[in-house]
Design a protein that fits this description.
Layout lengths: L1 H11 L3 E3 L9 E4 L5 H42 L9 H13 L4 H31 L1 H16 L6 H8 L3 H25 L3 H9 L4 H38 L5 H10 L3 H34 L3 H9 L1 E2 L1
Antiparallel strand pairs: 1-2, 2-3
């Protein structure tokens, strides 16, 4: 009778515990929806096919639109002076010679270092102040007015004074990139940590979890998508900040290369710098997506569906 009673309780229990991914971080995932394995497999297969079709369709549209853009560029350049708009074939040949000769790499490496350093500094400050504002109301009242004031001031207007203070090295570029990357991380961290479902917070309070355990085991996992969304925006803004800061005072870097080509009326070299900046931004964005995928697999499971389900139901 006791065994039957226990079995009936197990059959009527609506909660199903799935510990894949969460035990590594001290969690376990709870879902409230059970489904027949065969039906679930069929639904997952159909969803995978739809996502695969949309993925390839999106790639084809990207390639087609890029080809159309290059064709329009070639047609317009054929009727314009090369001094104003060089053709894509001449820009490509100049790009190949500029990269193969090794003259492009010092500029690429320096700009990449400035971007990553500014991004790291801005991320640390943004996440730190965002977490303080989310956890303590007094910190939020103190921090937010200064954040609004600093965001109202154009960051690029600070570049000349930063050059006077810190010289023509990497310092001013890193500071400008960090200041621009700071706000998206602060805002996304604050929103991610303060949008945790109330029922999950009540569960942690009922289990007498400490503030630190609640932050690390509940708020942070729920804030991961918001954090990485902020990382993506901050990374691109760091690129913009570093390049624009190189306009003011630098003799090396992709931004400095644009200014030099402008002064010598070398439009081909300017377009080469544009292409290199685009490729650099694209590469950094792909690296961000790779890291995000690895973190999601570590936290939530192997698929995006597992990630969505995991962020809906969490318990200790």
């Amino acid at each position: 009778m006791a065994g039957a009673h226990v079995g009936s309780r197990q059959r009527t229990n609506p909660l199903r515990v799935n510990a894949s991914g969460w035990w590594r971080w001290g969690f376990k995932r709870v879902t409230t929806k059970t489904q027949h394995p065969t039906a679930a497999a069929r639904q997952r297969t159909g969803l995978s096919r739809i996502l695969l079709t949309e993925k390839w369709l999106g790639r084809m549209l990207v390639v087609a639109s890029a080809g159309l853009l290059i064709l329009v560029w070639h047609m317009v350049a054929a009727r314009t002076s090369p001094l104003i708009l060089p053709g894509p074939d001449t820009v490509l040949s100049r790009l190949i010679s500029f990269v193969s000769s090794g003259r492009a790499w010092p500029h690429i490496i320096l700009t990449t270092q400035e971007i990553l350093a500014g991004f790291a500094l801005g991320s640390c400050l943004g996440i730190g102040f965002g977490a303080l504002a989310a956890e303590f109301s007094i910190a939020r009242r103190v921090i937010m007015p200064y954040v609004i004031i600093t965001q109202a001031l154009p960051k690029f207007a600070l570049a000349p004074i930063l050059v006077i203070w810190f010289g023509f090295g990497m310092g001013p570029k890193v500071i400008i990139a960090a200041l621009i990357a700071f706000f998206p991380l602060l805002e996304n961290t604050y929103l991610g940590l303060t949008t945790t479902p109330a029922e999950h917070l009540e569960l942690f309070r009922a289990l007498r979890a400490s503030r630190w355990d609640t932050l690390i085991k509940l708020r942070v996992p729920h804030a991961i998508p918001a954090l990485f969304s902020g990382f993506r925006v901050a990374l691109m803004l760091s690129l913009v900040g570093a390049v624009v800061a190189e306009y003011v005072g630098a003799n090396k870097g992709l931004g400095a290369l644009i200014i030099v080509s402008q002064g010598t009326l070398d439009t081909e070299l300017m377009f080469v710098a544009f292409v290199l900046l685009t490729a650099l931004g694209f590469t950094l964005d792909k690296l961000h997506q790779l890291v995000y995928r690895l973190v999601r697999r570590r936290l939530y499971g192997k698929t995006a569906t597992d990630a969505d389900a995991s962020t809906e139901h969490v318990s200790v």
